[in-house]
Amino acid sequence: MRLKEKVALITGGGSGLGRATSLLFAKEGAKVAVADINAASGAQTAADIGEMGGDAVFVEANVATAAGAEAAVRGAVERFGALHILFNNAGIAGTRTMASIEEVTEEDWDRVLGVNLKGVFLCAKYAVPEMKKAGGGAIVNTASIAGIIGLHAHAYGASKGGVVILTKTMALELAKKGIRVNAVAPGFIDTPLTRGSYRGLDDQQQAANVARLADEAPMGRIGQPEDIAHAVLYLASDEASFVTGHTLVVDGGFTAQ
Ligand SMILES: NC(=O)c1ccc[n+]([C@@H]2O[C@H](COP(=O)([O-])OP(=O)(O)OC[C@H]3O[C@@H](n4cnc5c(N)ncnc54)[C@H](O)[C@@H]3O)[C@@H](O)[C@H]2O)c1
Known about the structure:
Blueprint: E1 7-11, H1 16-27, E2 31-36, H2 39-51, E3 56-60, H3 66-80, E4 85-88, H4 106-133, E5 137-142, H5 154-174, E6 179-186, H6 192-195, H7 203-216, H8 225-236, E7 247-250
Parallel strand pairs: 1-2, 1-4, 2-3, 4-5, 5-6, 6-7
This protein binds nicotinamide-adenine-dinucleotide.
């Protein structure tokens, strides 16, 4: 087991990449605190880990607020007594992700930056003191290929580009404290966010979305949440003990084009 006796806090653990990573971490021996703004799906992930014979707790939290981020960290520490790993993953695409710069609303900009970038900062802010107490730790932030290349998503891309540089600044500050900070930059992954279910698309439209993206992908498919979970596992584990400040692109070759 690669995470035996480790305590991990996973934000956005109720769905997609966060859920897959929560399940994988539990299989690898971690005690998992699942934080999500969606109480039903977050509690479901924690219950599923329990059924697998693992140890998990659900904490309802909005990571875009200081109170929510602090509650997420406190929930993990109160239940498990320490914190070693933070997967800073909760994120949203915004209501009109591909809107032109003239059409992006201030409200959408603030919401996307609030969850995707400020949420990463806030969770790290409250997790780092706990990791220092534990003698070290690992933070993995979820960036995106949209934070590396221009994908016509202004607010989303800006938030993820911010995550890439915040990963480096935190990594340098914390390197001598035994806390590593890395990021994953997923390409298109089959989750509700990519399918467009939040935008009210029906099943057929969602399937068409996935088929179009698969068609344009070098491998002829988009990724599965487990493709990202395994990359996060590596970065969070001691196998990556000399890796910090890095953004690991996991995109099936999309940005190699
Ligand atoms: N799916 C992709 O193709 C893809 C690609 C690149 C990056 N990402 C990033 O991966 C991360 C996970 O996305 P996903 O595809 O699994 O999406 P998802 O919608 O399946 O899961 C996101 C989870 O985050 C939770 N969440 C949203 N806002 C929150 C908040 N304020 N506080 C706490 N929880 C909140 C949601 O309730 C949900 O459970 C996001 O940061 C996303 O930007 C996804």
